[in-house]
Amino acid sequence: MVLAFALVAVVSALGTGALTFREARNGLLQRSQDGVVDQFRDEVGQVVPGFATPADQDTLTELASRLVSGHRAQSWRVVATYGALRADAGSGPAPELIGRELRGRVETHSVAVFQRVRARSGTVLVVGLPVTYAGGSRGLSGLSVYLIVPQSGEEAYVAALVSAVERAALPSLGLAVLLALLLARGVLRPVRELRGAQRRMAEGDLGTRLRVQGSDELAGLAGAFNETAAALEKSVAELRRMEARARRFAADVSHELRTPLAAMTAVTDVLAEEAPRFDEDTADAVRLVTEETMRLARLVEDLMEISRFDAGAVELHADDLDLAESVRRTLSTRGWTGRVETELPAGVRARVDPRRLDVVVANLVGNALKHGAAPVRLALRPLPSPRGVEIEVSDRGPGVPEAALPHLFDRFFKAGAARTRSESSGLGLAITHENVRLHGGDVTAANRPDGGAVFTVRLPLAPPEDAGKTPEARA
């Protein structure tokens, strides 16, 4: 905008100067030209009637000399022609400047003809005047006179005019640019303040406000921004209060449910052991109660874990681990060793929390076994740049709907309606994401081109000098 204002100012100043110069120059040259033509016509009108028809060279030479005699100071050169005869007089520019087109027009018309010609010495005015008969019948007499006069004086005036325009235009141009910059600054300052306020709000400072000055459109915009910011701050504060209440409620409910769930779990364990002694209907009821109690217990544990992440009460107890051995232990503990194909190269070590790594691997492999199709494959790979490790879990199932991919790690999100009544809580992938993020890594989900879903975890490797240090010491 500053450049636009400055450009407009420059164009306006230069355009005004150019138009002023052009009009003044044209007016000066036109006035000079009209004066010379009228003067030459009057001179011809006074001198020619005293001569008879110039039938010889001497008469024609005398006519030219008479016409130029009173104007030698003006550097006139007069050329007179009659048929094949030609005579010239005066100290002005050369007769060769009379063009063929101008001569043709003078010899065939009864009006004065003139043109400006560019010569080596400068601009020259050439005037052609046919002499006509006076009396009852008017017509061309065959005598033509030409005036060639330099316009050095006019050029000097034009040069002086150019200098004057330059002297006037440069300060005017500077003043116009200065005014344009001041105007642009006045317009852009509120815009810059608005941009800065928007950036601060985007960074989380919802208390940002603008000063409202004046009553123009920018002041109205600043006022509208302040109203929007105030409404947004109020809405965000209310949402944060509601979110905090919801988190406290989930944490409190989960905590309160743990005690009765512990008792229920103990009772269902006893009932499950005695189920073979019951009749078929009672045994089915016992198994159902046991499964639902276990599902409820897992949901409560997941809610407690999410609540700890929300409260910032999660601690990372990292240790230097052989990742291949840790992954094998996770699969063996859950009885998945024969159900999962593995690619676990030896010697890949990283500083991670073993319990949280176990949760991450168990959630991803369990998710693939439940909702994918064989073969389920787990691969462990070191990453050369940036240094880290990659854990990839894939299956050959139907994959994940494309619309669901961006939301897989949201809490309580389930990719399909058929899974809404499954034993999954909808928190497993959210807990996986939080655990990976706690390690400084990331987890992504995608579909394989040849079918199936693939989940990829990337974890950084701690440097060797960090081995044995607690997270607090590393921080």
Descriptive report:
The protein is of the alpha+beta class. It folds into 3 domains: 2-159, PAS domain (Beta-Lactamase, 2-Layer Sandwich), CATH 3.30.450.20; 240-311, Signal transduction histidine kinase, dimerisation/phosphotransfer (DHp) domain (Helix Hairpins, Orthogonal Bundle), CATH 1.10.287; 319-474, Histidine kinase-like ATPase, C-terminal domain (Heat Shock Protein 90), CATH 3.30.565.10. It is built from 10 helices and 12 strands. It has helices spanning 2-47, 57-69, 100-108, 152-202, 217-274, 280-311, 323-333, 354-371, 428-438, 471-474; strands at 77-82, 85-90, 113-119, 122-132, 140-150, 319-322, 340-343, 349-352, 376-383, 388-394, 442-447, 453-460. The strands form 3 sheets. It has a 5-stranded antiparallel β-sheet with strand order 2-1-5-4-3, sandwiched between helices. Strands 7-9-10-12-11 form a 5-stranded mixed β-sheet, with helices on one face. Strands 6-8 form a two-stranded antiparallel sheet. The longest helix is centred in the middle third of the chain and has 58 residues, at 217-274. It catalyses: ATP + protein L-histidine = ADP + protein N-phospho-L-histidine.
Provide a compact summary of the structure:
By secondary structure, the chain is of the alpha+beta class. It has helices spanning 2-47, 57-69, 100-108, 152-202, 217-274, 280-311, 323-333, 354-371, 428-438, 471-474; strands spanning 77-82, 85-90, 113-119, 122-132, 140-150, 319-322, 340-343, 349-352, 376-383, 388-394, 442-447, 453-460.
